[in-house]
Design goal:
Rossmann fold; globular; 9 strands; alpha/beta; seven-stranded mixed β-sheet
Length: 294
């Protein structure tokens, strides 16, 4: 539990209760997984899947899922400080997006995320600012995405699609993840009205026959075990004209590339790509893989 969560819990009895109940469940309840041991990603540990299933079953849990510590271990943990850095980058590169900031705050309506006050834009969750920074990157790298077919690997609750959908109308947007996560994503997105259409898909449900204009992943691909990464490359990434993958594995010390593809291997398997700096740099070994840019 990070310091921001602790501060919020002190002033928020509901959050404190959620945390304590979650720790009791974590201590005594059996862990739940969607896959056998060799297929589990970095996010499938502790109580993440157990909590996602609770949110799918219980509306009260769903109504505040973004602020729950068991969810914030995996998602919604962007710090206030990183949020400020994302805001600064967007202002530098895409100030017009900040002029439309109220449109993007739609991502904070459902799930009660932790929000903070930022100069000139008011209260917003730093996670939404991160999604907006990725939106800025995609627009500047790949141009107009209207009418395009997009695949996203590792989708959280669909927040990246929701933010992108404020300025684009995609032909179709394919969301790849584990079944309980996709169920949460559908529940979340159906609280909103989209310009685009989306399709939920697990890796096994993908026949590899689709081609995409763009494939994106915010850390999700990089946390998968190597043989699952290879299958995603075979079925999705190799069939995408453009790609934007934020990575937290593949380079750096050996412990950052345990059972994940190395950069050397990625160069052999993916379309020819460039390596961009992650800004802000959230970990020393992080980077962004990009191909097909304008």
């Amino acid at each position: 539990m990070n310091i921001e969560t602790i501060k919020k819990a002190i002033s928020n009895p509901v959050l404190a209760k959620d945390y304590l109940l979650g720790e009791i469940i974590a201590t005594f309840a059996p862990k739940r997984y969607c896959t056998v041991a060799g297929n589990r990603s970095g996010s499938e540990h502790r109580m993440y899947i157990h909590f996602v299933e609770r949110a799918n079953r219980n509306y009260k849990v769903f109504s505040r899922f973004k602020s729950h510590p068991h969810y914030r271990e995996i998602l919604e943990h962007v710090s206030r400080e990183h949020g400020a850095e994302y805001l600064k980058l967007i202002l530098e590169v895409s100030p017009d997006l900040i002029q439309k900031i109220e449109q993007f705050k739609i991502n904070d309506i459902v799930g009660k995320p932790m929000t903070f006050s930022y100069s000139k834009i008011g209260n917003i969750s730093p996670t939404t600012l991160r999604y907006l920074k990725v939106t800025s990157d995609l627009r500047n790298l790949f141009g107009d995405l209207n009418g395009k077919k997009v695949a996203e690997i590792g989708v959280g609750y669909g927040g990246q699609l929701l933010v992108l959908d404020r300025i684009y109308s995609f032909y179709q947007y394919h969301l790849f993840d584990l079944q309980p996560v996709l169920a949460l994503t559908s529940r979340y997105l159906e609280h909103h009205t989209l310009n685009s259409s989306y399709k939920l898909c697990t890796l096994n449900q993908c026949d590899g026959c689709y081609s995409y204009d763009l494939a994106i992943s915010n850390y999700g691909f990089s946390e998968l075990p190597i043989h699952i990464q290879v299958q995603y490359i075979k079925k999705v990434l190799s069939k995408s004209k453009c790609g934007y993958l934020t990575m937290n594995s593949g380079k750096g010390p050996p412990e950052r590339t345990i059972n994940q593809l190395t950069l050397v291997q990625l160069h052999k398997l993916l379309p020819p790509f460039q390596i961009l700096e992650e800004r802000p740099l959230t970990r020393p070994e992080n980077y962004i893989l990009v191909w097909g840019q304008s």
